[in-house]
Write a structure and sequence with these properties.
The structure is a homodimer. With about 300 residues, chain A is an alpha/beta fold. Chain A folds into 2 domains: about 10-130, 2-keto-3-deoxy-galactonokinase, substrate binding domain (Nucleotidyltransferase, domain 5, 2-Layer Sandwich), CATH 3.30.420; about 170-285, Nucleotidyltransferase, domain 5. In chain A, about 35% of the residues lie in helices and about 25% in strands. Chain A has a 6-stranded mixed sheet with strand order 3-2-1-4-7-6, with helices on both faces. In chain A, a hairpin with a 4-residue loop joins strand 10 (about 145-150) and strand 11 (about 155-160). The interface of A and B includes residues 119, 169 and 215 of A.
């Protein structure tokens, strides 16, 4: 995204997650002037530090005498965040602005809205931020009927029908992979990067065939490294395949017979696409940033 | 174990693992004078430090002019350990002393033998230390025909027939539980101790019914904590049940119709017994230290 000089910010789109903060000052035509990336995520911020963090980043974009609407999604709305935003309860439409939390700021140049998350009671689950990407997907395709997968540290699978989030499921898969590859006895067996597609696919298939064998299959990577010099990139890819294969198998009833919309174009989204392909499932990759901005734009359009 | 004053050490039994070192100076009647526990495990030791670590602990037990036989099992025999001891290949009898590595020491008061581990080629697996406990089990019951489970950070299931280790399988289960409960986003959801048997059993049953749901079931604990104040001890017990249940299910063909000998009397062994009981399997708990000593004793008896 190239920064556009001269144009003025009219409002601000914000995605405030656990580890990242993304800020888009928006022009009057609802397109971003630029994107500001910061590591001042919710995880390391005291509630009192949110306002100053944001004003420091926005300083070049204020117009004297005018307040900027700031539309925020993500973990900034959690209990440990800036100001708690309630959860809407699925099945529901992605929460609209009238459910947002208005944050009192001492700086009058900010009108801050934090969008709610979505919760589900049985089985229990929560999201904060992804609902805004779903709103973005629905803004582009209001009649969408299918499943959206948002890969990440905690991957989410969201079923969508008639404009509603009907149900969803979150998986610890990405975090498990990080812990296994960086903290466990396998950290010396698994490469820190690199990719072997056929090893990944073999891992997927093995997990789908015998999901209960996970903890043995993982140890076996170490044994193969000791006894047969297993290649570290192959080991890493197979381990990732075991974990993602397990998840794919669990979500089979959700994606069977449907095209899965994968939000993200990074290595993780590609891996999910490859895993689903081993099972004959069709996928389309969507741009995560575009969905987030579209969702925040819909919310902003609700300010009257 | 009460220390016996006055009696002399004739030989020394040693279990040198990754994180622990256990040393038993043995009397002429093959019973231990005492047990010395140390945290000088293989994981933190330079190869040059093994001899001095051992002589410092044994100083009170040397008899002038006499060398002590030291029979060692465990990770001290790994490539990164004191001196590499080869692996025997399963199916095989637990390795005897003639396969042991003699370690050159500069201190003439030590005659050090390190017992080999056991490897398996397909599926790849390795053990170092457990084979000596199996030797101990077979010393007590030479006709044993069944399965021995050695619960721990890397739990092993060993099938035994006609005095041989016929095959075995190692699981990363214990390490996964540690990482999840101490390092993941669930560290605030799971209590650091405490036990809820019915939650553990429910976790086992859920994992056996839907092993592929592991990463979702784990995240659900966090959601239940957020939305329904799930009790941290209940969460911990259910998480442990998911992981151990998965393993039990994978090992079903090995234990079905047999009595499982569980080596250990600690909380982990009790959990495995409870998990197996949910599936109608019978277990007997055996004393791990007794098995280790019996195995080392058998090896020592082979010195001619």
């Amino acid at each position: 995204m190239t920064e556009r000089k001269g144009a003025k910010a009219v409002w601000v789109a914000v995605d405030w997650g656990t580890s990242h903060l993304r800020v888009w000052p928006m022009a009057s035509d609802d397109t971003p002037l630029c994107r500001i990336d910061s590591d001042m995520g919710m995880g390391g911020l005291d509630p009192s530090a949110y306002e100053s963090t944001l004003t420091a980043l926005l300083e070049p974009y204020f117009t004297p005498g005018t307040a900027l609407d700031v539309i925020c999604c993500g973990m900034a709305g959690s209990r440990q965040g800036w100001s708690e935003a309630p959860y809407a309860t699925a099945p529901c439409r992605p929460p609209s602005l009238d459910l947002a939390t208005r944050v009192e700021t001492s700086d009058a140049r900010l009108n801050v809205y934090i969008l709610p998350g979505v919760k589900q009671h049985d089985p229990a689950d929560v999201m904060r931020g992804e609902e805004t990407q779903i709103a973005g997907a629905l803004a582009a395709d209001p009649g969408m009927d299918g499943v959206i997968c948002l890969p990440g540290t905690h991957t989410k699978w969201v079923s969508v029908h008639s404009g509603e989030i009907t149900s969803f499921a979150t998986f610890l898969t990405g975090e498990l992979f990080q812990l296994i590859s960086q903290q466990s006895v396998l950290r010396h067996t698994l490469a820190s990067g690199g990719w072997d597609t056929s090893a990944f696919e073999a891992g997927c298939r093995a997990a789908i065939e015998a999901p209960q064998a996970l903890a043995n299959a993982l140890f076996r990577l170490r044994a193969e490294a000791l006894l047969a010099n297993l290649d570290p990139v192959e080991a890493r890819s197979r381990a990732s395949g075991y974990l993602i294969g397990l998840e794919i198998e669990d979500m089979r009833p959700r994606w069977q017979g449907k095209t899965v919309v994968l939000v993200g174009e990074n290595e993780i989204a590609q891996a999910y696409a490859a895993a689903l392909a081993t099972q004959g499932a069709e996928t389309v990759l969507a741009d995560a940033e575009e969905f987030t901005l579209a969702g925040l734009r819909s919310a902003r359009a609700q300010i009257t």
